[in-house]
Amino acid sequence: MKKTLCAAAMTFATLAGAASAADLKICVEGAYPPFSETATDGSVVGFDIDIANALCADMGKSCEMLKTDWDGIIPALLERKCDAIIASMSITEERKQVIDFSGKYYNTPGRFVGKDGMSEDDLSGKTVGVQRGTIHQAFMEGEFPDVELKLYGSQDEVYLDLVAGRIDASMADSIAQLDGFLNTEAGDGFGFFGGSYSIPKYHGDGAGIGVRKADTELRDAFSTSISNIRTSGEYETINSKYFAFDIYGG
Amino acid sequence: MADLISYMPLLMRGMVTTILLAILGLALATVFGGLGAAGKLSGGRIAKRVVWLYTSIVRGIPDIVMLLLLYFGGQRLINDIGGMLGWDYVELSKFLSGVLTIGFIYGAYLTETFRGAYLTIPRGQVEAAQALGLRPFTTLIKVSIPQLVRFALPGYANVWQVLVKSTAVVSIIGLQDLVGLANDAGKTVRQPFVFFSFVLLAYLCITFVSTTLFDWLERRTALKTHES
C-alpha cells in the first residue's frame, strides 16, 4: 500500500511538473519565423530565443523556455506559468492595461524597396506606393512631403505596381517586404535602399518583453540588460545571424 | 514534402501525446460515467441532483471553454489557495489539465450511455437473480454488467470517436499534441496546408483503427444465436 501511495505521489509530482529548477521561466511562441520557430526536434529557436538567452546570461539567471500558444500567452503570464513573455509582442496601450513591458528589444523599421541601385536622393519627384491608412503613409506624409504618394488597398497591389513600373518604390515594414516580396521570385532585381526608419511617433513602440505588473524589478532588469547587450555587441551578433540590417530601429 | 519528412519524428511524438491523452481521457471518463450512472440509477435525492447538474452543465458548454476554465481558472484557484497556505508555486500541468477536462466532459456523455444501457437490461433478470438468492453486488458483477457492456458498446465507441477529435482543443493551452505541433511546424516552414493534410490523415488513421477494434469487440460480446 505504501509503495502504491508513493508511486501515485511521484506520478502526480511528475504530471504536475514540480517547481522548475530555473530562476526564470520564459514564455516563447514557436510559430513566427524567423523570430520564433519550431525546430525538427521540437525545440524553439530564432531571434527571440537568442535574445532571451543573451538577456538571461547578462542578468546572471538561468532561464527555461516554455513554448506557449500565442492565444494563451498573456493568461499564462498572469497565472504564473511563466515569468516573462519574449515573443515579438508589440507594446500597445491595450496590452499595457493588463501586463507591463520592458523597453523595446526591436522595432522592425520601415524601409524603401525599389529597383536595385536606387538611392534615397533620387526620390524627390518620384512616386512611392504605400498601403492606405498605415503608419507608413503617415510617415511618408510627415517626413517626405515632396514625394508623390500612391495609395493602395493592400501591400500586394503595391508590389504588383512596383514590378509593373507604375511606381518607383514601396515603403513598408522591412521584414514584411523581405518575406512578402524580396525573397520571392517577383522580387528579383529589387532591393532595400535608404535608411531604416522607426520613429515612435509613426512606428509605435516596437516589441518588448512582457512581465506581470507587480514585477517592476524584473521589468527594469530586462530593460537594463537590453541596453547592456546593445553596447556589448552581443545584440549585433544575434541580429546579423538573422537580418542584414539592424532591426532595433532608431 | 521534404520538410514534412524532417518533421516526422516530432509529429509522431505529437501523435503519441494525442493518443495517450485520448486513452487516459477515456479511462477517466469511464470512471466519471460509471459513477454518474450509478448516482442517477440508485443514488439518493442529493446524488441524483448532483449528477443531473453535472450532466446538464457539462454537456451544455463547449469543450474549449471548459479547458480554458480548468487550465487557467484552476491554476488561479491553486495559486490563491496556495498563497493563503504559504505554498510555493504549484504548476497545474498541461497534460493533466487536458486529461481532466476531457475525462470530465465525456464522463457526462458516458453517464447517459451507461444509464441507457442499464435500463435496456430486462427487469426480470435482476428479479430472477434475487429469487436465486444472489447478493446485489454479485448480481451487478455476474448479471447486469456483462449485459450492460453489450448494450453500452455502440454508444461508447461513438463517444470515443468524438473524444479523439476533441483532443485537438488542447493545443490552445500549448500542449504539444499532433495539432499544436503541426501548426507550429507548418508555420515555421510556411507550408501549413501540407502539415494539416498530414494531421487529417493521422486522425483518420486513429479513428479507423479504433472503429475496427470496437467492431471486433461488439461482435465478440454479441449474443451468440443459433443462426450465427
CATH class bucket of the largest domain in chain A: Alpha Beta
Gap from first CA to last CA of chain A: 66 Å
- Count of discrete domains of chain A: 2
Alpha-beta content class of chain A: alpha/beta
Q: Quick one: CATH superfamily of chain B? A: MetI-like
Low-pLDDT runs of 5+ residues of chain A are: 9-18
- What is the CA-based Rg of chain A, rounded? 22 Å
Molecular structure report:
The complex is a heterodimer of chains A (250) and B (228). Chain A is of the alpha/beta class and 250 residues long. Chain A has helices at residues 2-15, 47-59, 73-78, 93-96, 135-143, 155-164, 174-182, 200-203, 216-232, 234-242; strands at 24-28, 31-32, 36-38, 44-45, 63-67, 84-90, 100-106, 110-115, 127-131, 148-152, 169-173, 190-197, 207-211. In chain A, 38% of the residues lie in helices and 26% in strands. In chain A, the strands form 3 sheets. Chain A has a 5-stranded mixed beta sheet with strand order 5-1-6-13-7. Chain A starts with a helix and ends in an 8-residue tail after the last helix. Chain B is mainly α. Chain B has one domain (2-221): Orthogonal Bundle (MetI-like fold). Chain B has 9 helices and no strands. Chain A binds chain B through residues 15-20, 30-33, 37-38, 40-42, 66-69, 71-72, 75-76, 79-81, and chain B through 6-7, 9-10, 13, 68, 71-72, 75-76, 79, 88-93, 95-96, 171-174, 176, 180-181, 183-185, 187-188, 190.
